Amino acid sequence: MFILYLLVFIFGTIIGSFLNVVIYRLPRNESLVYPPSHCTKCKNELKPYDLVPILSYMILKGRCRYCGDKISIRYPIVELITGLIYLILFIYFGISIKSLSYAFLASLLIVITFIDIEHKIIPNKIILTGLIAGAIFRVLMFNYGVWDYIVGFFLGGGVLLLISLLSGGGMGGGDIKLMALIGLFIGWKLTISTLFIAVLLGAVGGIILIVLKIKTRKDYIPFGPYISAACIISILYGYDLLNLYIKLIRG
Ligand SMILES: [Zn+2]
């Protein structure tokens, strides 16, 4: 079993390595496949042994083999997070079309999180990719029903759209589209759980960032990372949290 866990983790880190390429190139409108991976400073093409997820970064102590330029810590972090999330999804859902759909969604969320932190945008290309994939997964997973997910789509997008209208544009259009996309993947119940947790994380995270003086009250704080984290938590614990909540309000 351990070997299987290790293989799933390694597979996740390899996907993470590709997500790093997407995170860097997509906002810069560069091709995802050409040219091959290279140092962004000295342009030297990276050899396979420079591209081993996590390990290459550690062995090279975070510097380019050719010019010594610092490599962003984001690379090993994204690889590690992707590996861990794939492993956890495998432990929870086994190898199934469901875990595959969650792994796909998680990969999109990782890309969105890191692009949103750096560029403060959620690219439409990613949302569109997600919507198409989500629709295909819904067809493949027809035995799970369809209405839960259609309701999730409109509920997720609708609630944030409403908040945006009421707050006079405090919520970005990207966040609204992202939440609709999530609803399509996880259904309306987990969408409610995601919304609650995202608001909670956003409030706590916002206060911490302001107290630590990383951001001021006037700064734009991207909400995409909070929605993404809340979605992953909901996939794993959403039903437990909803049941706990129902128990609490019933006394
Ligand atoms: Zn270099």
TrEMBL record:
Signal sequence residues: none
Subcellular location per the Swiss-Prot or TrEMBL entry: Cell inner membrane; Cell membrane
One Pfam family here: A24_N_bact
GO BP terms: methylation; signal peptide processing
Reaction(s) catalysed by this chain's protein: Typically cleaves a -Gly-|-Phe- bond to release an N-terminal, basic peptide of 5-8 residues from type IV prepilin, and then N-methylates the new N-terminal amino group, the methyl donor being S-adenosyl-L-methionine
EC number: 2.1.1.-, 3.4.23.43
Bilayer-crossing regions: 6-26, 73-93, 99-117, 126-143, 149-166, 178-211, 223-246
Record's bilayer topology term: Multi-pass membrane protein
A single MF term (Gene Ontology): methyltransferase activity
Functional summary from the UniProt entry: Plays an essential role in type IV pili and type II pseudopili formation by proteolytically removing the leader sequence from substrate proteins and subsequently monomethylating the alpha-amino group of the newly exposed N-terminal phenylalanine.
Family recorded in the similarity comment: Belongs to the peptidase A24 family.
PANTHER family for the chain: PREPILIN LEADER PEPTIDASE_N-METHYLTRANSFERASE-RELATED, TYPE 4 PREPILIN-LIKE PROTEINS LEADER PEPTIDE-PROCESSING ENZYME
The protein's name in its UniProt record: Prepilin leader peptidase/N-methyltransferase
Organism per entry: Thermoanaerobacterium thermosaccharolyticum (strain ATCC 7956 / DSM 571 / NCIMB 9385 / NCA 3814 / NCTC 13789 / WDCM 00135 / 2032) (Clostridium thermosaccharolyticum)
